[in-house]
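Deliverable D5.2: sample structural annotation.
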Amino acid sequence: MQFVDIGINLAHESYDRDREAVVRRALAAGVTRMVVTGASLESTRAAIALARALPSVLRATAGVHPHQAASLDAAAEAELRALAASPEVVAVGECGLDYHRNFSPPQAQRAAFDRQLALAVDLGKPVFLHQRDAHPDFVAILRDHLGGLVRGVAHCFTGNRDELREYLDLGLHVGITGWICDERRGHHLRELVRWVPSDRLMVETDGPYLLPRDLHPRPASRRNEPAFLPHVAAVIAAERGEALEALAAHTTATACRFFGLPAGGPGPSARTGETA
């Protein structure tokens, strides 16, 4: 079985001490390709550097998270455009709206989201989307660009049935994380995940965040990593009434189509010569 982790914050400082080991454990677990999330100019630059160092395994996204939306001035937007045009970048984002904490003012979030969607249209690249407690505004802005967008994925979907239905009606793909393993707040996803068509479903860890709470034995660290993705996939497969092998096959095929990844797994150099 092979899996694609479509959202891993591998440039995060928590991986600095053992990043190569994290990648090795992922490969050993069958996670053969990973898309490294760019959520700021700094993390986008780092994600691209990682993808260049390990091209058979890693790709990158380029974006500014809504938490950092206020930083997207004209100069930052020009740099983001240049970064997003890099061949290692397979999607624009993580971008969207997050009214849960409002680390950037909502008006700044909406403006940054609008500009990043326009960038995705200009570059002909998919969008990697974030939304929390902002569904009406998120959908309204997204609709303004739908005619030009090639594809979009609702990254780390945690919403309700109505939100899922609207995302699917808009043609979005859906990324599911270990949130589904959280008995306190994620069990509603166990029903909703059954409604996602096989050709729209993808899996992700969003590491180092969202460590699955039902891992046994419990890891010593609370840091999540791609090696735990098969566990998340097994929970999803069970709720959908599918064999894990079938879910691995169709989520991997969908991710490869969505991001334009090679259909096969990484070559031998990923395990021997390349470093992350």
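Annotation notes: The chain has nine helices and eight strands. The radius of gyration is 17 Å.
The annotation will be released with the project's public dataset once the embargo ends.
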